[in-house]
């Protein structure tokens, strides 16, 4: 008997899994003590770093590959190509390994060494290219599309392929809803592809409507150097500043975000996000990456705005070990004028 991710509770898995892909999802929802205490609210983080590939992107990878199989685009022995900041590539490679496919992963060379080394270790055909903006034909997304066409392969197209958000609608949202007993006032999440935010927003809306309860507020968390905060607030995708976070932020609206009701947005500067990363590790034993820091910082802001007694959920996207050479490197942090935790 295998475990259904939709039935997962905060205690984790309660039965065996038929294979690696069956173990994707069903992650714990962890009460964040410090964030809860300072706001008078209950703030929870979905521990997506506990997926087999170590991040929330395992869900998108499984959903995209499953949709390609069902459509007939991906056949036994086939190849899937994707441009990614790293985590989606890891998820796609592991799911492809489990299902007998080849993976070709295109990554900007600016991404953390740990993610690149891991991709090589697990057998991805890794193609490193210079980091270029989306408007440039050499951008990793455009490059991966051309490469898929040249190879006669399936292009995962995680940014505009709505199988991404539908995977979260079918699994992540029901898990959060059931783990919180349907009592959730707000959900915060940063966006790279937009799949997690959009899928959870759609799923929570479905479940709240079915239960006759108010729809939770959906709040987009955005780093500096991204246009999505301005898009939500004033339909303006203008960009200013920059961020050391990887895999989140956009200069355009991905297909996964189109048509999604987003109530508000919070722009989180790197020092505020890294403070959350370091405090979660020091005070609660949770090792997370920069995007999780942005998510928790946004959840705290939202909780303070809503007032004591409210319940907020967010995503702990991946683990801190993937960013050891950057976020936990005192020389890198000092060079960027960012906070350095005392133990480093």
TrEMBL record:
It comes from Tanticharoenia sakaeratensis NBRC 103193. Its cofactor is pyridoxal 5'-phosphate. The keyword Transit peptide applies. InterPro entries: Cys_Synth/Cystath_Beta-Synth (IPR050214), P-phosphate_BS (IPR001216), TrpB-like_PALP (IPR001926), TrpB-like_PALP_sf (IPR036052). It comes from the Bacteria. NCBIfam families: PRK10717.1. Keywords: Amino-acid biosynthesis, Pyridoxal phosphate, Transferase, Transit peptide. This is Cysteine synthase A.
